[in-house]
Amino acid sequence: MTETMRDRFARVATDLLDSDPRLAIVVAEISAKLFGAAAARHPDRVINVGIREELMIAVAGGMALTGLRPIAHSYAPFLVERPFEQLKLDLGHQAVGAVLVSIGGSYDATFEGRTHQSPGDVALLDSLRGWTICVPGHPDEAETHLRAAAAADGRVYIRLSTQQNRAPHPVVPGRFLVMQRGSRAAVVAAGPMLDAVLEATHGLDVTVLYATTIRPFDAATLRETVVEPEVVLVEPYLAGTSSSEVARVLIDRRHRVLALGVTDTELRRYGTPADHERAHALDAAGIRSRIERFIGLPQPARLATAI
How far is residue 27's CA from residue 244's CA, in Å, rounded to a whole number? Predict the structure, then answer.
């Protein structure tokens, strides 16, 4: 069975807890069983607050005030959206650090319905100052970001998903990785969108940048690789989340941005993650078609279909 990012997170976080007395884990029932052995060894540093997500963040903030480095974990809507006020006050206003590790992505748990979907989590968290936001695309990359976050002091959000790329890449926290170079546009693929982007851009004269840290946004690499002032963002969360970052980075250049991501249309049929991906045109075919139109490549003729 393929190891998921969630599996790797639980294993690495448990190892880190054993080796670093500063670390603590706070959950709100979800994934509590994954940390059962760790809780038995460190009952004072593995806390399950029950189904009280606001309390989970408040407890993490209190731990941080005592000098601990808390790791809070749940599904994205329960980690970012529901306790947003606590993120703003108990962490941000108190100027303390913590690591948030979410699961569920935008629509991994489609069968659970809208309550477990959170395409707006990154945009919401981006409204608060001082957060590093990581979107790994493979369990190895998730481990890289988790270890870096655990050793740091600031506020870090690591967004995990069951959607992942086939292979890991040598990512460096804080930097984009140049996957290919071209002259027609720069395509920024965030986390688990990389495989679809590489398939979609096969044979196209475009640069592909792989982003697993999207805040801070790697301005230096984008500026260095942009040839034509055309930028395509492909993000596995709300479309346009990083558009303002591109505008800031290229403020001195006339440029265009195509922002691809999860649309603001709520899909009310459960389906599968792949169904949602196609519906939002985030599969390889949908991405390629929109990139080709954006950079001015001719589109295939379409036959009229009777309705």
Answer: 33
